Amino acid sequence: MKSKKTKLKDKKLHLKNTRTILKKESEISVDRKLYLKNIRIKKFVILFSQIAILVGFIAIWEILGDLEIIDTFIMSQPSRILNTFMNLTSNDLLMHIAVTTYETVVGFLIGTVLRNNNCNYFVVVRLFICNF
User: pLDDT at residue 61 above 60?
Assistant: First the structure.
């Protein structure tokens, strides 16, 4: 049989070997680091390009509307759309949108659950009680 000191030395050696193996596995080569850095740069460039295209499109749309190259009655302008939205939100538009969205989602879920349970009968459910 092994003595306690020998067992303790074996455990320490095993632990040291395990740490060495894990350390070697976690090390990343220089080429891998460069590859990951290039991927991050490409993702940033793509995201920046997408945002720039969106901002450019909205800017060109606004400028063409100001210069009356496009008919603003048919195609409006981003600034007018934003102003109209801000005016409507002061009249509780967002609350009405939230209520309608809630009722739609709950109705869809109830209809899906009832249909999946093969219930072929009609159920009337009052989804939301409000003081309108």
Answer: yes
**Do 111 and 96 touch, CB atoms closer than 8 A?**
no
Q: What is the pLDDT of residues 75-87, one digit of tens each?
A: 889 999 999 888 8
- DSSP-assigned states of every residue in 21-83: HHHHHH---HHHHHHHHHHHHHHHHHHHHHHHHHHHHHHHHHHHHHTTSS-HHHH--HHHHHH
Between CA 71 and CA 18 the distance in angstroms is: 72
**Are 31 and 96 within one domain?**
no
Q: Nearest Cα to 130, choosing from 95, 104, 105, 106?
A: 95
The residue range of the domain holding 53 is 4-91
Number of domains in the chain: 2
SS3 17: helix
Residues 45 and 79 in one domain: yes
Residues 123/114, Cβ–Cβ less than 8 Å? yes
Tell me: do 49 and 85 sit in the same domain: yes
52 compared with 23, residue with greater pLDDT: 52
pTM of the model: 0.52
Cβ of 71: how many Cβ atoms within 10 Å? 9
